[in-house]
């Protein structure tokens, strides 16, 4: 028994706080281990000096192992459950997401785990990135050698294990060239700092947008400086990384044109949108400025029209933020119409919702009520729905009929007398 225990190595199966797996030589000489149905028996021996060993796997002969290995998904799932201490649903999802785990024998999966651990990748990192196990031991070692040449700590560079060996070789060469051009800083560190995200997150982003690993570093720096220099936020850049596919001159030209068109705030979409879209924005903003003249913004315009301070106008708009996006021509026409009908600025400030309606809608409602000799003393009436206004009209008509009948009766009494 001591001869068998001596050939057990600590690389995989979990029981309590110990990790045990028979070595390849042990399996070849004796049995094949079936991880999917391993049972653990308490073991202690005073004679062999192995009293610290708590458990050993129960092994099966080769034929039993071969029969059980037919269910590759089942074996892969069980291997991950025991190796990483995860539940069945998580293991099953991983096996389906990474089909290589169905083809790899359980022993190779465990050897992959041992290889990853040996190069310094922690258990939790492997558990969070199960796809790391879906490769061969030799490929993992080659990738690790290249990744260790990158100017990154291994814990941050884990996403790069997703790259092919050829891609990793190219990346390492590129990083060496960049280090000669810009010492002590790589595109990974630069983007992480400028776009305000952790290194691991940036590595994951680079894996989703691999073209960022091929674009010249100087272009990345130039475009980033242009965007940030013109007020584009890091969050907006991260949400639209396609902007780096354009040349620096194109980015700068588009940003300047967007500023001329009155786009505020500037976002990366102004670089990739059709030029006709920027022209349309420019046309609208030109009309907006004409409507607000001689004022330069909506706050100054409202402060003058409503005869209030600039602070009061700001508070008024802050309570009704939709006003910022309203057509200034419409605002101008509505306000002027109400003033022509002898309403005061305070009436409008008490009923800001009226500004949400179109000029023609307000005009038609007012004329309808005026023809019925029902000129509204309160502007809230004009804010009602069509059905509510109809009810309002019918209600006032019904109240006026008795008054007219009474007046008519008095006139008749006067005649008879």
UniProtKB/TrEMBL annotation:
Cellular component annotations (GO), alphabetically ordered: mitochondrial matrix
Keywords on this record? Transit peptide
Q: Which residues form a coiled coil?
A: none
Q: What is this protein called?
A: Transcription termination factor, mitochondrial isoform X1
Gene Ontology molecular function, alphabetical: nucleic acid binding
From which source organism is this entry? Cephus cinctus (Wheat stem sawfly)
What protein family does this chain belong to?
A: Belongs to the mTERF family.
The protein's matches in PANTHER family, at most eight in alphabetical order, are given as:
TRANSCRIPTION TERMINATION FACTOR, MITOCHONDRIAL
KW Transferase (keyword) present: no
* Gene3D superfamilies assigned: Transcription termination factor 3, mitochondrial
- Tell me the InterPro entries matching this sequence: MTERF, MTERF_sf
Q: Which GO terms describe its biological process?
A: termination of mitochondrial transcription
Which gene codes for it?
LOC107267609
